[in-house]
Design brief:
The complex is a heterodimer of chains A (388) and B (133). By secondary structure, chain A is of the alpha/beta class. Chain A has helices at 21-35, 53-56, 62-69, 87-101, 120-127, 143-158, 162-180, 194-198, 227-233, 251-254, 261-274, 291-300, 309-314, 331-335, 342-355; strands at residues 4-11, 45-49, 78-81, 106-114, 202-204, 207-208, 217-226, 238-247, 283-285, 368-375, 380-387. In chain A, 39% of the residues lie in helices and 18% in strands. Chain A has a nine-stranded mixed beta sheet with strand order 3-2-4-7-1-8-11-10-9, sandwiched between helices. A two-stranded antiparallel sheet of chain A has the order 5-6. In chain A, helix 7 (162-180) packs across helix 12. The two termini of chain A are 18 Å apart. The relative contact order of chain A is 0.20. Chain B is mainly beta and 133 residues long. Chain B folds into two domains: 1-51, no CATH class; 53-133, OB fold (Dihydrolipoamide Acetyltransferase, E2P). A five-stranded mixed β-barrel of chain B has the order 4-5-6-8-7. A three-stranded antiparallel beta sheet of chain B has the order 2-1-3. Chain B starts with 6 loop residues before the first helix and ends with a strand. The chains are: A alpha/beta (388), B mainly beta (133).
């Protein structure tokens, strides 16, 4: 297996966009290609994460349009990848495998999404399509609802009074908004307080509006190539050291949803491939679609013991400058969550962090970074470890 | 290989007041809702059985912002059946605005409600419901 490098990355500003999904992808892709010191003609294959384009723009089969938009030759295969909110990370793993295996040398991968075009009722409905359509969807479960059930179970299981847990969850949102305020590409660049969260409207008890990431538009992309080629192209290649993907069934079959087994399996694969442990990670972008989601992810990845993640937030261990800085980009909460693009945007942040290009939100001396992306009702998890 | 108990058969059972499931002839575990293999040992030597329909609430939420086609507020809960499997459904007969963590651990009985066909559903649906026992 060949060592795989990220040569360049690109990303649009997240938030309401007047541009189409194809136009946004083209912007992110051209930034990734040009900063790799490549031309579109050098790209041998394309993988595009996209979840709900069919509902957002009436756009199916978006990948070949993305390829054509940037002038790729008809001989270049372009493939849409869908793994709900983890789509772009699933796509990165696909691209990684093709380059690692020797089948392709230079692959463009990313994602694009325009969820804000749907409006809240249709967006809530289509996001809920990530649940089991036979046995769960007819109960009207929503995506916030799934994580709301995680939060209630977490409170009871670990004996943390709900009011205390909610305060600690609010601190996740406060931290991620603080980081997002330093990210010019973030959807929300404004700090908030615990009161902002606790006074916001209830969405799915106990999750309030500011416990939830927003609906977002945006795109992100990266160019993957071999170590040998990357060294010739750019000054600071970033390498994929470990990668893993896991799968879970419907919520009711997962039972104790405070432990997301697909994540534990994916993380094990990634750590094993990299020959690293959670203690080796300097910075992490993880899937904080809801505040409680960040807490359980920080435990599932091995940064904290199960049941201790919320206390770690309170102690500031996940802030920039803390023991394991989590979501310096602002995370899904503040940076935004254009679902098909999110995994690529996490990769964008980690690559920039490892290159030392993050300005005010830079994690000093970061050499090893990790991404964690979750799709559907805790069903798909991808973990990727990057290093320089 | 023949599917052992389809979702339509599971729905029909609920409509007749029965919670149907699968019992594994290899390991003895119960699987519900049904699937192709045993939820515990993945074996495929399964028999269709009727479950007690009794269980207890493990977690819940109150949906305040519903998907298109639903009217909030309503309670979604997961309950563990006496035989082991968990089901997800709507807790009925409890005021959503009075729902608190005290619900967790409460004994419930499984029922059902029929959901008319909606946009992007393959026809009529049957949702599991729970009522306090």
């Amino acid at each position: 297996m060949r060592k795989v490098a990220v040569a360049g990355v690109g990303m649009t500003k997240f938030g309401l966009s007047e541009k189409s999904q194809v136009e946004m992808f083209a912007e992110a892709a051209m930034e990734a290609i040009t900063t790799s010191n490549l031309k579109p003609k050098d790209i041998q294959a394309v993988f595009v994460g996209n979840v709900l384009g069919d509902f957002e723009e009436g756009q199916m089969n978006i990948a070949p349009f993305c390829a054509a938009e940037i002038g790729l030759d008809p001989s270049v295969p372009a493939t849409r990848v869908e793994g709900a909110c983890a789509s772009a990370s699933v796509a990165i793993r696909e691209a990684f495998i093709w380059v690692a295996s020797g089948f392709y040398d230079i692959v463009l991968v990313g994602g694009t999404e325009r969820a804000m075009a749907m409006g809240t009722p249709l967006a809530t409905r289509t996001f809920a399509m990530g649940t089991d359509s036979r046995y769960e969807e007819f109960a009207g479960i929503t995506f916030p609802g799934a994580f709301a059930m995680v939060a209630h179970l977490y409170s009871v299981k670990y004996g943390i009074p709900l009011a205390k847990l909610k305060e600690r969850m609010a601190l996740v949102a406060v931290k991620n908004h603080k980081n997002g305020a330093k990210n010019p590409l973030a959807q929300f660049q404004k700090e908030i307080t615990v009161e902002t969260v606790l006074n916001s409207p209830m969405i799915a008890d106990p999750l309030q509006l500011f416990d939830c990431c927003p609906f977002s538009d945006g795109a992100a992309a990266l160019v993957l190539t071999t170590e040998e080629i990357a060294k010739k192209l750019v000054a600071k290649p970033v390498y994929i050291l470990g990668i893993g993907q896991g799968s879970n069934g419907p919520l009711c079959r997962q039972k104790d949803v405070t432990r997301i087994r697909a994540r534990e399996a994916a993380a094990r694969q990634a750590y094993k491939m990299a020959g690293l442990t959670p203690q080796d990670i300097d910075v992490c972008e993880l899937h904080d679609c809801f505040t409680i989601a960040e807490i359980v992810a920080s435990e599932g990845l091995g940064f904290f013991d199960f049941g201790k993640g919320s206390e770690a937030v309170e102690k500031g261990e996940t802030q920039i400058g803390g023991r394991i800085p989590i979501n310096p980009s602002g995370g899904l909460k503040a940076k935004g969550h254009p679902i098909g693009a999110t995994g690529a945007a996490q990769a964008y942040e980690i690559v920039k962090q490892l290159r030392g290009e993050c300005g005010e939100r830079q994690v000093e001396g970061a050499k090893i970074g990790m991404t964690d992306t979750l799709g559907g009702d805790l069903a798909t998890i991808v973990n990727i470890i990057y290093g320089i | 290989m023949q599917y052992p108990l389809t979702y339509k058969q599971f729905y029909e059972g609920l409509k007749q007041g029965k919670v149907l499931g699968l019992k594994c002839r290899s390991c003895g575990a119960y699987t519900a809702p049904p699937k192709m293999c045993c939820a515990e040992c993945t074996g495929s030597n399964l028999e269709v059985v009727e479950l007690s329909g009794r269980g207890e609430i493990k977690t819940f939420t109150v949906i305040r912002v519903p998907p298109e086609g639903f009217t909030a507020p309503y309670i979604v809960a997961m309950a563990e059946l006496e035989e082991g499997p968990w089901l997800l459904g709507n807790l009925e007969g409890v005021d959503a605005d009075q729902a608190s963590l005290d619900l967790i651990g409460k004994k419930v009985k499984v029922g059902h409600k029929v959901i008319p066909p909606m946009r992007y559903s393959a026809g009529e649906g049957v949702a599991v419901t729970f009522s306090l026992a």
